[in-house]
Amino acid sequence: GAGVSQSPRYKVAKRGQDVALRCDPISGHVSLFWYQQALGQGPEFLTYFQNEAQLDKSGLPSDRFFAERPEGSVSTLKIQRTQQEDSAVYLCASSLNQAGRSYNEQFFGPGTRLTVL
Amino acid sequence: SQQGEEDPQALSIQEGENATMNCSYKTSINNLQWYRQNSGRGLVHLILIRSNEREKHSGRLRVTLDTSKKSSSLLITASRAADTASYFCATDRGSTLGRLYFGRGTQLTVWP
Q1: What is the 3-class SS of A69-110, one letter each residue?
Q2: CB–CB of B98 and A95 under 8 A?
């Protein structure tokens, strides 16, 4: 596909369950970002990868959140022991990250809506 | 924490009218961007304005930036029902790593 894809689109979990959210970035895009968007709010940064290296994870809200991108392409955001406050839309974005450019446009996926009961 | 504050939080207009949304931010920036989000969808990039620019146009969109007031505005002219969406501003807080800081957004409703 031409864009960023995410799966599943919707996930319902019981409190305490572990969940894994997948992001397929645009082929060749070096940078990958995860954002969390609570209802009625703007997206908030979670973590950033450049290829397989996780360069910034300062936005992860707790140690229950873990992200990986082992081969520098697909990324997985894992949430352990989910809590009700984890309910949100999780957005993934990728960018080309061309050297020498001061800005590289981020392309967003449709998001995964997580509901924790 | 949210970087920008958009106002109004909600805006309701008739087709053909112009829609103006404002954004304020708190830190220095390299650039400011506006995004659009339809209900249940991801964000779509609309326009970027650099810190040394004051105004930028793209089709029916006009963005202004006042770095002395740390504010920006997005004007959509001759609005259409299809413009109904949430609009967010986002800044980089002066970083070049690409991380974006979003405001809470303005929900625009355009009535046919």
Answers
A1: CCCCCCEEEEECCCCHHHCEEEEEEEECCCCCCCCCCCEECC
A2: yes
CA distance A62 to A80: 10
Compare CB distances from A103 to B4, B31, B102 and report the shortest one's residue.
B31
Of B40, B45, B105, the CB nearest to A105: B45
CA–centroid distance for A100 within its chain = 26
**Residues 6+ positions from A5 with CB-CB distance below 8 Å:** A23, A24, A109, A110
Using a CB–CB cutoff of 8 Å, tell me whether B25 touches chain A. no
* Whether A41 and B2 lie within 8 Å, measured CB to CB: yes
Q: Write out the two tokens for A59.
A: 């936005």
Q: Which chain B positions have a beta carbon within 8 Å of A102's beta carbon?
A: 30-31, 50, 96
Torsion of CA B9, B15, B17, B23, to 10 degrees: 20
**A33, A59 contact by CB (below 8 A):** no
**Residue with structure tokens 């022991």?**
A81
pLDDT tens per residue across all 117 residues of chain A? 579 999 999 999 999 999 999 999 999 999 999 999 999 899 999 999 999 999 999 999 999 999 999 999 999 999 999 999 999 999 999 998 665 555 668 899 999 999 999
Tell me, yes or no, if A107 comes closer than 8 A to chain B by beta carbon: yes
Of the listed ranges A4-13, B76-85, B88-97, the least confidently predicted one is B88-97
